[in-house]
Design a protein that fits this description.
9 strands, 10 helices, alpha/beta, single chain, seven-stranded parallel β-sheet
């Protein structure tokens, strides 16, 4: 796997923390040429300095900024081998309580940010005749569920974008992979926008043991190196994806159990 990424020019968005930081550290160890970006400029610079990478402050919801980063990367390095569209956050709560502003923000960051990075990287990669676009979706992009409806919505869209473009891009020499991890040790639980319950309660919604970040990163990088269409992990994720396709009634029961449990545990005065 290491030879797959050695000396490859790779842009990673959302690289100041979580999975983005994990990808950066792992790929740096494999000898990749890394261009890291994040809206947290100080944070991404700290990560970049530790692994000898380039760093940029970037708001992925700003199309022109995304376009400029990709153009400057190619001008400086002569090519773009991988585009990791990873930046994003979560919104949790019941839909009737979630304000429109939270919907707007998760759409412009989680979805538009991926669309901008994907389309601009794709334009460049079709011109050079090669490249690999990697979009961080989620198991939430394959399996419906309550409490995090906005998050599921945008992640379903990212899976649809990635799988559809993969077909369109094949004859252009461009690969597309959607990453669909389950519950990973990351800062997404603490950084999530929550409605009617505290951020600390996010972890209480997780019905499975969290997968260690380094383990998840290794599985996903191996899937990317193998050019998989979807990288689903861990084992329960693959089982749930199978159940959605062939035994949906049981998945729906699990979702109902989850939302009913959430409502019972929520304070009565919220």
């Amino acid at each position: 796997m290491e030879s797959t990424f050695r000396n490859k020019v790779i842009i990673i968005t959302g690289a100041a923390s979580g999975l983005g930081k994990g990808f950066a550290e792992a790929l740096a160890g494999m000898g990749a040429v890394l261009i890291l970006s994040d809206i947290n400029e100080a944070g991404v610079k700290a990560v970049a300095e530790a692994i000898n990478a380039e760093a940029y402050g970037l708001d992925v919801s700003d199309y022109e900024s995304v376009r400029r980063l990709i153009a400057e990367t190619i001008a400086r390095h002569g090519r773009l081998d991988y585009m990791f569209n990873n930046a994003g956050f979560a919104v949790a709560g019941e839909v009737q309580k979630i304000p429109a502003a939270d919907w707007d923000r998760i759409i412009v960051v989680n979805l538009n940010g991926v669309v901008y990075g994907t389309t601009e990287a794709y334009k460049a990669m079709t011109q050079q005749g090669f490249g690999h676009i990697v979009n961080t979706a989620s198991l939430a992009g394959l399996i419906p569920g309550p409490i995090m409806v906005p998050y599921h919505t945008v992640k379903f869209a990212i899976v649809g974008l990635s799988r559809s473009l993969r077909i369109e891009a094949q004859d252009m020499g461009v690969k597309v992979t959607a990453l669909c991890p389950g519950f990973i040790e990351s800062n997404i639980y603490e950084s999530a926008t929550t409605v009617d319950f505290g951020r600390g309660s996010m972890r209480s919604l997780v019905p499975f043991k969290l997968v260690k970040t380094d383990v998840a990163i290794d599985i996903m990088l191996r899937g990317i190196a193998a050019n998989k269409e979807l990288v689903i992990l861990p084992r329960y994720g693959k089982l749930l994806w199978w159940m959605v396709r062939f035994y949906y009634a049981q998945v729906r029961k699990l979702g109902l159990k989850s939302i009913r449990s959430f409502r019972r545990r929520r304070p009565a005065n919220v």
